[in-house]
Amino acid sequence: MKILIVGGGMGGTILGNNLARRLRPELKAGAVRLIMLSASERHMYQPGLLYVALGRMTPEELYREQASLLEPGIEFHVDPVTEFWLDKNQVKTQSGAVYDYDILVIATGSRMAPELTPGLAENAHCFYTEASAVKMFKALQGFKGGKVVIAMGVPHKCPMAPLEITFMLHDYFQERGIRDKVQIHYTYPLGRIHTLENVARWAAPEFDRLGITYETLFNLKAVDGDKRLVYSEEGAEVSYDLLITIPAHRGMEVIEKNGLGAGGWIPTDRYRLNMEGRDNVFVLGDTTNLPISKAGSTAHFEAEVLGENLAALVRFGVPVRDYDGKVFCFIEAGKDRATYAMFNYTQPPQPQPPTRAVHWFKVAYNKLYWLSARGLL
């Protein structure tokens, strides 16, 4: 049996390692082949980009060689897929190679798409790539005071990123001694400051306490760089001196080009994680169209469930678990304090008051991530 994993990010890496351990006897005997196709030889710790943008990490700290993170038994190739031939149980890669499979897992991730909003890419700063995070850090270093606006598109990767960057900007300007010269203004597309009601209820008083202003029902429409104005679909406009954005995201272009899902999001069964209409094609992480957070922990928990199920399919012919929508997100809350949100399909999050202990656990996780990617944490 051939299991093919397309994508070497968080979800694909954890799944591959999970399966390599679970199916070690079958791999050793040659009864199972486990193949991973990736677009890069390096693995990036994506949450670290936020810290790069604020000068708390350097870019080289974000990377490891992908091959070094994988268990023995995984056949790893840097050869991104360009075509999916699902009816033939095959994919074609950039090199022209064709791989067949019995089970396919698609974990290609997502990409930011600021170009979807007129004027945004040219006039705003963000932290979703190494280059944009470094550029944002340089802009912050040169900023002497004025109005900083945080504006966001939907959907976006990491549900807590809007709150975290806002709290961390407050600390950043305070540490530089210019917080009294900076107005931080946060906008959000819904009628509260976060999608999750309990998170919004916790965060709003924190904003008030720190003097952070906010505006809800602000769906990003366009940016006028000459006038330094941000416009909303609702007809509002906000002036800025420095614009920070959480841009709208889409799935990867290869998914759209192959017609696997609108916007690059593949229709996915919320419990079994198979592509709708395909019993032998599974989807992980940001690539799904599931109505849950696009976050590393989502991919992590999905990969654990799928690893158990695929091993069971190999050995018994049936899956053994459902994915319950579990997500866990740290929330940096400023002044070396943090809290977290843990939730699933049926249980909403209940954020607790931020503590230094949770903050230092988050800091430690920045280093422990590599154990997590190995599936050892």
From TrEMBL:
GO molecular function: oxidoreductase activity
SUPFAM superfamilies recorded: FAD/NAD(P)-binding domain (SSF51905)
Domain spans labelled FAD/NAD(P)-binding: 1-288
Domain of life: Bacteria
Gene3D superfamilies (alphabetical): FAD/NAD(P)-binding domain
Alphabetized Pfam families for the sequence: Pyr_redox_2
PANTHER family: FAD-DEPENDENT PYRIDINE NUCLEOTIDE-DISULPHIDE OXIDOREDUCTASE, PTHR43755
Name of the molecule in the record: NAD(P)/FAD-dependent oxidoreductase
Highest classification ranks of the organism: Bacteria, Pseudomonadati, Pseudomonadota, Hydrogenophilia, Hydrogenophilia incertae sedis
